[in-house]
Batch of 4 targets.
Target 1
Amino acid sequence: MSTPFLDTARRVIRTEADALVALADSLDDRFRDAVDLLVATRGRVIVTGIGKSGHIAKKIAATLASTGTPAQFVHPAEASHGDLGMITADDVVLAISNSGEAPELANLIAYSRRFSIPLIGITSREGSSLGAHCDVVLLLPQLAEACGTGVVPSTSTTMTLAMGDAVAIALMENRSFTAEHFREFHPGGKLGARLSRVADLMHTGDALPLVKDDAPMSEALMAMSSKSFGVVIVTNQTGALAGIITSGDLGRHLEGLMSKTARDVMTSTPVTIAPDALAEKAVGIMNMRKITCLLVVDPTGGNIPAGLIHIHDCLRVGLG
């Protein structure tokens, strides 16, 4: 059912979506020039803007920093009262103003020109005060704001945010920035958990319930109960993985269990995972197999058990 509120929401979103298409179609060699300038910088990207542009600038700075491009937001009003000292000759300034006439930017623009600090502008008016002084202008299409009255920054801020994302991801791809690099900047929260490696969560060394394949089951049961994983890792005489003993294996060999060896009871083809695999993959395997832990084996390390990862380790960091 259509209501006035829904009609408004759909109009706003479609207006902004159309603006993003227009923005994509408008990009030209100046976008490449801006990225080349940023790639060549030895310092940071100083992102600045006032009002709604300032809020967008903060997000762009955060996105740049989290994707491998050192960046910092500098408030233009604070810059006029001492924070210009945060900007060095090795930096690049990315200034945002839809009109290009924000008076608060004047001192920062002048400072960048005085000390030959490269200046990139994001604006919808190339001939504005900002546009006229920039080394590179990233020009936004001059389109109506989604509010219909032209007074609420909406279409313009959406385009600016998208332009910032485009710059950040272009730089990221230029630097061959991988998920592993991304994880280093995002160790916390759900995202950090999703990018965790098995090696980050697995148990190793003395924590592992290990027995040789010729060990009596009394020794295997002792290892199982003392390590609290509910499994025993069985190795051959050279230390390579031979199998695993689970509670299910115990149930299948109850008759005469204590007269048997670990080799007699073990499952000789256990499911394993590599230490550099994503922990999220380990969770998927455990869920699919309906098991609570996985043996970790480095395929390049002679099939030697490297560790053990338990579903509780994954749940603790927010996976599962």
Target 2
Amino acid sequence: MILAIMVTLYDSAHQFEPLFPSEAAQQPLLAQAHDLARAALQLTGRPVPSELRRLLRGMNSYYSNRLEGQHTRPYEIEQALQQDFSAHRELAARQRLAVAHIEAEETIEARYQGENGALRLYTTEALVDLHRELFARLPADDLNAGAEPIVPGQLRQREVSVGLHVAPAFTAVPALLQRWGDVYSRVRRGEAALVALGAAHHRLGWVHPFIDGNGRVMRLHTHALLAALGYTGGLWSPLRGFARSSERYCAGLAAADEARRGDLDGRGNLSQRTLVDWITYVLATCQDQVDFMAGLLKLSDMERRIAACLTYEEQTLRSGVRLAALRPLHYLFVTDGTLERGEFKLMTGLGERTAGSLLKALLDRRLLASDSPQGRLRFGLPLHALRFYFPALWPEAEADDLSQAG
């Protein structure tokens, strides 16, 4: 009975106002967004290996699913990407979900590019598309494993409550999403667009358009928006930051559901103050991730880090890898390019036979990557090299490597 009464209160397209802070409340947020935009654009101009972007997609999947309590270990994700799934049914399902997120993220980024792509992301069709891309990749057994089947791309058909939040009537969801999209798609200025995507993340959660998968869709939506606006270059994502501050993330979402706190708390049904706090958190999380990656990608440090990895391989693991590979590996990293195998061997300064053995060891250890047995070479980034190349980027992957080595 209480749920039915609450649902009738939330069946209007104006019940989740304010969707955007007032002009006065925007000023500190715009200043914060200005700093973020400047730092992000500086970072995206750096050349980095394509293998790093591939690895970051796996990391994004790991962290987004961790927020849902359904994550896998990093090495289990890597195994799944090689079609090596666990014999345990539940773990294999989580592995498939991780791969689905990775593939969906890549597809969505390619589909929604530039300003036009960002505008299209503020449509019901795009939200349905994101949900479908995430879940249509899963087999029927996985979709039917929960208390209620997941129908990829289907808006919810019944009433729900999440914690203390009673979501609006399912019949009102289309109108609410229309209002959501109309407001945020009109925000086109650089800094204001960043403020808007923070607000949109929360208000989308308030609507709760799907029976399941709302959190994943919200995070993928924010990630895709940042990419479409040109701020990520595939080098960072707020997903890592959200998961590493999960208590604040969840508390901030819940607090922004609170009702207006009197006449000094903006105009609308919901609290402007808690919405501003939420947007502040989102922008600060993005800034933290940009700053972190900018520090990791200092080219002046990379030669030293690659040398440390090669020295460990040569002197401790005795894997056949040699420090002589430093020059060509560093070249591949800073140019994000490729080399013919003969060119790579020549750059090592070793004789043909020794250089050939080194090349094989580098490929075996996946410190080099190639698409075919005789194909061109590119920089490789296996999980076991992370602690040397990008320390603290993905601590859980480093821990996996150390535990397996032990």
Target 3
Amino acid sequence: MSDPYLDPPSGILRNKFGLTNQEALNQAESNSVSMRSTLLQLNTINGNFDSEHLKQIHSYLFRDVYDWAGQFRTIPLAKADYVQGREFTKFTAPELIEEQLDKAFCQLAEEHYFAGLQRREFARKVAALLSEINRIHPFREGNGRAQRQFVRQLADNLGYKLHFTVVSKERLIQASILSAKGDMTMMERLLDEITDTERIQPLAKVITHLEKKGFNWNDFYLATTTPGQTYTGTLADSDGTNFIFHDNENRIFVGNLKDLQGPAESGKKISFTAS
């Protein structure tokens, strides 16, 4: 079917910049939304954590880019993916978006917006909420960024912080695809990690180290090791306290040097259980 959101000659989303090149639009959109994301964290949008609140956040983030910012999509939407051998993720039909979001947000209200929960249980609940909103995918574009601002504000109200800045794009994509298919493991682990200040510190340090070397960490799955889990891989680098290694699935992990036996030598094959 035809997509009314697209500019027919160029095949890219109609935008207020009048751009007809995808790369140029990506850059302009990123610059605009990044600025508004920063402003939004300084001046949050008051709301009831419902559909209208989500619309307001999306409208604020994308108002300089798209005429339809803050409006739910009117066409079916699916995205190609290749996680676990699956080829497509199909999102909620447009006529069911309002109904399914209302159900999710009513449940959120019934659970008192997760007030009073311990950190790990809060992280698990937020993972489920984020995954459900993503499964519905109410907007034509910009769902992830609006969703993250939505749950970030929810966390802030309860005294928790969601450190999405240490989450690589590739990791978030993988977690979102799997959770949309009903597998919550990766998303729950992600939220558990980024609500734990102690665990994100070495991750942030390693990201700074990689950026100084010109390494595009956003294109890789990047996470800290999980206590009690056994890993095998190839050691890449260390900073004196932590070490970086990759496994046979090309995922990058940050571990604690005390978990290794022997010197941390680049290219060395390692096997250990994380403490």
Target 4
Amino acid sequence: MAPDGQLLTREYDPAQAPDVHASEPIPDAARAEIERLLTSGDLFRYTAPEGAPVALLEQEFAALLGARYALAVSSCSAALFLSLKALDLPRGAKVLIPAFTFAAVPSSIVHAECVPVLVEVGDNYRVDMTDFAAKLSDASAVMISHMRGHTSDMDAIMALCDARGIPVIEDAAHSLGTKWHGRNIGTIGRVGCFSFQSYKMINAGEGGIMITDDPEIAARAVIMSGAYEQNWKKHPGLQNSYCHWQNKLPLYNLRMQNLSAAVIRPQLPALADRVAKGRAGHDSVAAVLNDCDWMTVPDALPPEERAPDSIQFNLSDDWSDAQARAFQAAAKARGVTVQIFGLSEGNARAFWNWEFLGPAPELPQTRAMLMRACDVRLPTRLTGAELDFIAHAIVDAAQQIMGRARKS
């Protein structure tokens, strides 16, 4: 630190910056299984009468999260869509979602012939409970996105929804390994949906999974995922329900294939270690950023034990749009990519870019947050030196644009 308490500016070689966009390598334990599958050609989950990699993944994931049922599918978006269809909501049903989420979330609702209703989000990236409560009376379901791993007040959300008999789907794409009051995120609502896309805690390139304790939701989702003819017999239990729903529900063919499951399964035992490393890495960077006048990393809510693989922080009110864009450029010159959600052209997390929904609603609180909310990937594989590089590059870029101390 400098004598005045401000961070010293460093020299940066962008070529030395860590590559935060490289995916986790395929585990060695998966290679032999992948080779076996390629040799046999048994890539379809229903080829084997039992013990297919996808079936084993479902059993292992359900046990890991403490859920009764799991269904592996092609993506988290597919899991969200199937969850809505399995709830058997009427056409045109209103589904509440946070206004800060990824475009795939409202898209899944549109695909399910329902109507997304956007709820304001605060500068801590969590649902504004006043706006949530006001809009809940017209809702048939809630799809709560734990966006970038930030958990909204699930105690308040579930109390309001349970009192009205409104089902909650948890979009936990970014929250595998996060806990709320010690309970796994994804097990609090009626259904939990997770992603195995390359930038998530477990990397399969693509893929998703849904979990539930509700046998009818599980049975309906299995059939609609593409368990045609007698293939539902290869899912454990629920045979009477499967038999009842066969040929009565449309098939969307959203199945996961065995190669994806072969990549995912060896990573499940590594989850706890990745969560611990991700939290430690996030908190070390947050400590540096919070020491700077020009930005703030919001605190987690007390019941939440986070599992982050990225960091989000807010620029202070002093910044203009031009200065914020200059900050992005200054960080990039140091080798660190900072995404400001509202200032990145066409960003899929800025609700006004979801033109498929029609005119954007008036959500001033969320809009203001997105215009200054910054996002940086922090893969759990980063070393302490790499995390330190990223943190100080961000702070030095901010100080280059705004000066060393905030104006009084």
